[in-house]
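Dear colleague,

Following up on yesterday's call, I've attached the two folding results inline so they're easy to grep. Please treat them as preliminary; we haven't cross-checked anything against experimental data yet. The first protein's sequence and structure tokens come first.
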Amino acid sequence: MNDMSHDVVLMEELHAAVKAIRAELHKRIVEQDGVIADLLACLLAGGHGLIIGVPGLAKTMLVQSLARCLDLEFNRIQFTPDLMPADITGSDILFEDRATGRREFRFVKGPIFANIVLADEINRTPPKTQAALLQAMQEREVTSTGRTWPLPAPFWVLATQNPIEQEGTYPLPEAQQDRFMFSITIDYPGREAEIEIVKNTTTPQTTELTAVLGREKLQAFRDLILRIPVADSVVAYAVALSRATRPADPSCPDSIRSLLTWGAGPRASQFLILAAKAYAAIDGRPTPDDSDVRAAAYPVLRHRLVRSFHADVEGVSANDIIARLLEHVKPA
């Protein structure tokens, strides 16, 4: 089998795996198809995700359910104001051999040493602990007392945030948010969906989820995403969207320029293309088009736009700015 035929078969397997994961998730998760698609695209593209939503919208349960659909090691870290960097990365502990009386320091790995890490309420812990997690996300390794310990592969971090509570929290700086590929927002469910949620969660829970995707196959899918070809015009469109968010760039529309202090950097252009590839693969298409870039614009750009005081006064959100951007910047 040549490489092209192998990729065609692998694409079919990816599409089938995504369909199976969605079926498993819907045993516990009502609606949220868009959020699930974003999470799967983030997983397949190899990026980390930031999930934002008010309490009670099943952010944690969604991540835990997705982890159960994957045959991978999963850890949840509840971030608190007293959490220290060593509490998540691990530390050197003094051990004593009772037979010989010899003592030595050994590195005991922290909960970050897992394939999937849920950083629950990441904005509740001080910056130095946030930085320890974010450094591990970027470097894929942990350094302790001069020794470096590689994190397991694959390594995927999903962090949750509550947007309405600011008392006693430590908001992530824009530079650190840039390390997350996606910012995924979860909104309130519709009326019928909420009725179904209440019915499902106020009766005995007997549903078990089945793991449908393992480590080796996931890595093969991630490699496939990188090999998916993209037309030059689609790449140019992604770059044009990113550049148009920068107030100092001539391509930034006048209707947006006054609403932004800083725009998205080159990493946003990269993530727009990776996300577009993942969306196409999830749908079983061999290559992404402009619509995939447009779909990726919201989760990729919304946490990379620094709104101006003018935007705050007028109540213009990041989503509103992205909507104006998509109206102004058209594909070539």
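Below is the second protein, in the same order (sequence, then structure):
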Amino acid sequence: MIKTVVKIEGMMCHNCEAHMVKAFEETFSLKKASASHENSQAELISENELDADKLRETVEAAGYKYVSSESEPYEKKGFGLFR
């Protein structure tokens, strides 16, 4: 799995976050998506690396400014069994 952090300028509220998450979910096959106007970014979890040009297009089509994106391997953290 891959975690992609997309830096975005222009999100001002929770509605902006929801709008951006919906745009990403409609464009990409994602396992999880979240956005934060306070941190000016979105975090996307996917099976494969996402295309940076398509990320830019998605952000700009939603009415915001794409700043950058970075991807890294992602391992789901959960509760383990303790013995």
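For the second protein, one point worth flagging: Residues 2-73 form a domain with the Alpha-Beta Plaits fold (CATH 3.30.70.100).

Best wishes,
A.L.
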